[in-house]
Amino acid sequence: MEQEKIGRFIAACRKEQGYTQANLAEKLGITDRAISKWENGKSMPDCSIMPELCDLLKISVNELFSGEKLDMDRYKNMAEENLVELKKQEEEANRRLLSLEVVIGYSASISFFVMIFTASFVEMAGWIRFLLIGIGTVLFLTGMYHCLKLEREAGYYECQECGTRYIPEMKPVVFAPHIGRSRKMKCPYCGKRNYHKKTLTK
Known about the structure:
By secondary structure, the protein is an alpha+beta fold. It folds into three domains: about 5-70, Orthogonal Bundle (434 Repressor (Amino-terminal Domain)), CATH 1.10.260.40; about 90-150; about 155-200, Rubrerythrin, domain 2. It has helices at about 5-15, 20-30, 30-40, 50-55, 60-65, 70-120, 125-155, 170-175; strands at about 155-160, 165, 180, 180-185, 195-200. Strands 2-1-5-4-3 form a five-stranded antiparallel beta sheet, with no helix packed on it. α2 packs across α3 and α6 (about 70-120) runs antiparallel to α7. The longest helix has about 50 residues, at about 70-120. It is elongated, with a radius of gyration of 24 Å. About 15% of the residues are buried.
């Protein structure tokens, strides 16, 4: 997906429909600065407002992603290409979230062990020792919670029984036995309990 091409297309369609950036922004409930960023290829419209934007510009979502008006012969091919591109973008975004999970996990664990080691082997007042242990524990538990939250939100879990991919509630993710990122949970669709593998796309 070429953001600059899409930006030029949004600008052309906006002018064709007689909107200024300010007019269009007002109708969408956003700032004209956001419209300017789209048209300069610096960002993309949020998925939540794409249908309304396309309706105002009298184009389809597929044409928006393609950055051009499409005839019927090209419509199907471009739709497939855009779906593949969106899947790649989703996979990359989820991969980044999982990388962030690793960074937070290591940082929280190292901080915890450094504070526990310091509290155990360095001479200090008792209250400082307890304070270090307390801070280390809070940092560790907070870090682990955020790691689990990131893991849950990055992609989907796949049931090995029925093959359904889904995003579970937070509680099963926290308490489920796991091997790496595979977690033993009850599938909300087939009801079977097995190890559900982490996948980056649906």
